[in-house]
Amino acid sequence: MVSQTADLLKNELPLELEAVVLPEDGVTGLVLVDIINGFCTVGAGNLAPREPNRQISGMINESATLARVFCEKNWPVLAFLDSHHPNKPEEPYPPHCISGTDESNLVPALQWLEKETNVTIRRKDCFDGFLGSIQDDGSNVFVDWVKHNQIKTMVVVGICTDICVLDFVSSTLSARNLGFLSPLEKVVVYSRGCATFDVPLHVARNTKGALVHPQELMHHVGLYMAKERGAIIASEVSFGAQNQQP
Ligand SMILES: [Zn+2]
């Protein structure tokens, strides 16, 4: 039933995926959005999966593989970690990823990133990593990361496709279009490197305050909306010669 609905939606909203080859001669940055225990590790908190989830574990594997290649090449990596003050709720969600708890830390498969010199870690207290990068002095950690590294192409992976990934990609593309992010040109969202959570209708109906959130549908819609803002949606990401796209 759910997969039939997902198939119907995919027919009505067809999404063209691209096989993206990242040029070896230009700077490409990798952004990891919230690949932390509170969203990915079974039983880790209010917004963590209750049981193993194929889309989420696939996202972790793909992201870890990409992160490994970026670190081997010494290319810039930025990791956002959702980290909330205990007294500042983020509605409509229950308390999650409170600062100082293991919920707000990278999943075990990515913890090694903390020791890598090419990796910037940014804890954020909101959905949108772009806004969450603003510091007290008005500077922006993400904007500075793009400019300092002279990033031309950016690959985005993480969770949730339709919430924190989409918000960050949307803000980034508006900022790029306004000329605030030079030399950034391309924003690539890697489909299998993204995931979202699953609250099917029958579960939401029996859970007070829960929003319906069928995983396959919302993942697809999130990717589609990112494409609507101008992101390139990739079915695969590889590394190649200089004259290939993008
Ligand atoms: Zn949050």
TrEMBL record:
Isochorismatase-like domain ranges (all copies): 29-204
Q: What Pfam families does the record point to?
A: Isochorismatase
Q: Note the superkingdom of the native organism.
A: Eukaryota
Q: Which PANTHER family match?
A: OS02G0606800 PROTEIN, PTHR47297
Q: Which family does it belong to?
A: Belongs to the isochorismatase family.
Please report the name of this protein according to its UniProt entry.
Isochorismatase-like domain-containing protein
